[in-house]
């Protein structure tokens, strides 16, 4: 059973970060309690990049370990063993999240 | 909880400027009182720029701190904690507003 | 309240010229009296220009002060205070009107 | 009232040539009498040309004074005073008519 | 009355070749008698060629006098006096017919 | 009656290879007897190639005499005398078949 | 009967890997037993690559022998004798699977 997937071209493999529904004190957070539902994910792996019109490779903008903001829709779901991942094209990813 | 978002490619992160509905003297301005409903916003952050066909990065035209005029439609809404922001592509922004 | 708008990319800010409906002698001109309904406007401001595929900026063809012929449709209306302006892309403008 | 229009980009200003419906001897020509209904026009003015992908200006193929064959449809009608003109893009014009 | 048409860009002016419906011996050929209905035509005139993205002119592939195979559909019909011609874009023409 | 057709641009003239329905021993092969219905054809002639954006000719990938695998749909049928041929664009042909 | 197919352009010939439905101990695996249904395949052959806008050949990213992850849809099925293969365009293949 394959354990690793190396994305091709400008694809980025991410694993979505589950939303915090319990406060640090262990209390169940109601939906509207400011816990903004960020569609965020961790970058697991990136492809070499898209090939430009004249054949140059345009490297991907995010790197392994980045926390990124995903668009509401899109992406291809991939199950490797028990884990679920998603593949997005580099230019569909909205931005990099920093603390 | 992520506090900052660094836009990717030619995306621009803006925060919409609420329309003035009360005159300086505190009187509620009627809709038609010349308070033109400008769809304006403050630029919070910009991406590095779009990648041209032959791989060059084309820098974004607006910069952090600019006040810009947004199109009537479009943009992606992003909530970071309590604050709401919007992401627009650089070439969807109509212009820079100056006093 | 913002008083000036600097267009971005290849956008052109224009102010439409009201059609003459009264002859020099003060007589109300009937619609068909040769007062051809030219969709003309004055150029108020221009953007730096469109960015070509390989990253060069292609300057706009019209300049501030030109009188131009607008297409019948299109353009984005912008109200700055009491005044109404319109934004057109450079290559939607049909031509420059000369006496 | 503007009397001249300078076309922009690759636009060509033409004035349609009325079809001959009376023979030289003054006799009314029936529709089918070989007086082929050529959609021809005289070139009044031309724009500088279209801008290519990498920013070069590609000059227009026809010049002022040419008699050209127009496509059956298309073109933008422009009335300057009493006269009616039409604007076509250079690559919509089918060919140059010669005696 | 214009007698000649010089095509523009990559347009090719052709005159369709009527299909042989009578055998050399003068007998009327039935439709199915192998007289394949080739949509062939004689090239009367060619334009200078299409302009490539970076402004180079790409000459047309066929020349005056060639016998060509036309696609089943397309082309613009042009009547010059009594004669009927057709205008095709160079890359719509399927091939050159040789004995 | 034209006997030869020289394809233009990136077109390839092919003649489809009839499927074997009788085994070597002369027995009628049932449809499912592994006689896979390969949509194969012999290359009769090729065009010079497609013209790239900047005017270079990109030669065709197959050559006269190759046996090729055709897509299930597409192609233009051409009858030259008694024979039926088909024209395909080079990049519609799936591959070259080898024993 | 052709035994080999050499893909053209950026096409990749693959043979799908049947999903394991029996555990090593020979027990029939229920659908949901974590045997994630990976749409994987072995690369049998690759084309030379796609031709870029200015005529350069852009080599394919995968090579013979790679195990790849296929998209859920797409691909052209090809039967060579008893075996079934599929043709995919290089940039439709999601990634390379590694143990």
Give structural notes.
The structure is a homoheptamer of 99-residue chains. Chain A has strands at 4-7, 11-16, 40-46, 50-51, 57-58, 67-69, 76-80, 83-89, 95-98. Chain A has 99 residues and is mainly β. Chain A has one domain: Roll (10 Kd Chaperonin, Protein Cpn10, Chain O), CATH 2.30.33.40. In chain A, the strands form 2 sheets. In chain A, strands 7-8-2-3-6-9 form a 6-stranded antiparallel beta sheet, with no helix packed on it. A two-stranded antiparallel ribbon of chain A has the order 4-5. In chain A, a hairpin with a 5-residue loop joins strand 4 (50-51) and strand 5 (57-58). Chains in contact: A-B, A-G, B-C, C-D, D-E, E-F, F-G. Chains D and E meet through strand 9 of D and strand 1 and strand 7 of E. Strand 9 (95-98) of chain F pairs antiparallel with strand 1 (4-7) of chain G.
Tell me what portion of residues of chain A adopts beta-strand conformation: 35-45%
Named CATH topology of chain A:
10 Kd Chaperonin, Protein Cpn10, Chain O
Cα-based radius of gyration of chain A, to the nearest Å: 16 Å
What is the total domain count of chain A? 1
Quaternary:
homoheptamer
CATH class descriptor of chain A: Mainly Beta
* Share of helical residues of chain A: under 10%
Amino-to-carboxy terminus distance of chain A: 36 Å
- The shape of chain A is elongated
Poorly predicted ranges of chain A (pLDDT <50, ≥5 residues)?
none
Name the chain pair with the biggest interface and residue counts per chain.
C-D, 27 and 24 residues
Protein name (chains A, B, C, D, E, F, G): Protein groES
Pfam family, one (chains A, B, C, D, E, F, G): Cpn10
GO cellular component, one term (chains A, B, C, D, E, F, G): mitochondrion
Keywords (chains A, B, C, D, E, F, G): Chaperone
């Amino acid at each position: 059973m394959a354990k690793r997937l190396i994305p091709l071209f400008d694809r980025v493999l991410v694993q979505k970060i589950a939303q915090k529904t319990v406060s640090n004190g262990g209390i169940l957070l109601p939906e509207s309690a400011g816990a903004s539902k960020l569609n965020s994910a961790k970058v697991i792996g990136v492809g070499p990049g898209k090939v430009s019109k004249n054949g140059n490779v345009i490297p991907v903008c995010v790197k392994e370990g980045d926390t990124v903001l995903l668009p509401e829709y899109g992406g291809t779901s991939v199950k490797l063993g028990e884990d679920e991942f998603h593949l997005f094209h580099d230019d569909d990813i909205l931005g990099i999240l920093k603390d």
